[in-house]
Amino acid sequence: MATMNNHGNNRQVTAVPPTNSSKQAAPQPKTVDTQSVLKRLQSELMHLMMSDESGISAFPEEDNIFIWKGTISGSKETVFEGTEYKLSLSFPNDYPFKPPKVKFETGCFHPNVDVYGTICLDILQNYPDFDTKSPWRTKHKFTSKHPSSSTLEQSRR
């Protein structure tokens, strides 16, 4: 797999989805043009900036659109009210075929977050569950599979 430097050079990246059965024919690798990935990230950033979603923000680092810093504010009338959680997001070069790595930089006491700030959810490890067309669909898939995570979801509102 090719890597990309911080200057946005146009290189091809290959993503190979896993197979569920050894009896299936080997899938054809998906080729991702890094310019497409850059456009996708820019589009998602613009969508986030234009949305009326309060209590959540994220921006790329100055020199690397693949690394973002974000903030989630705790929801009102919860134990998280008044707390801001800092996050780091690292998007792979073959995004959206693989999900970003997300880590809490601020300590967070939650059953799905380990002591290092790593979010421990199958959807982030098993990327076929990650919806390449819409991260919001991924959110809905996640909440339907993990109803006990409502506290984390409420903290995003």
TrEMBL record:
Gene Ontology molecular functions: ATP binding; transferase activity
Signal sequence bounds: none
Sequence ranges assigned to domain UBC core in this UniProt record: 36-157
Top-level taxonomic group: Eukaryota
Active-site residues, Swiss-Prot/TrEMBL: 120
SMART domains reported for this sequence: UBCc (SM00212)
Residue span of region Disordered: 1-34, 138-157
Pfam family, one: UQ_con
Biased composition (Polar residues): 145-157
Gene3D superfamilies listed in its UniProt record: Ubiquitin Conjugating Enzyme
UniProt keyword list: ATP-binding, Nucleotide-binding, Transferase, Ubl conjugation pathway
Family (UniProt): Belongs to the ubiquitin-conjugating enzyme family.
PANTHER family (alphabetical): UBIQUITIN-CONJUGATING ENZYME E2
Name of the featured protein: UBC core domain-containing protein
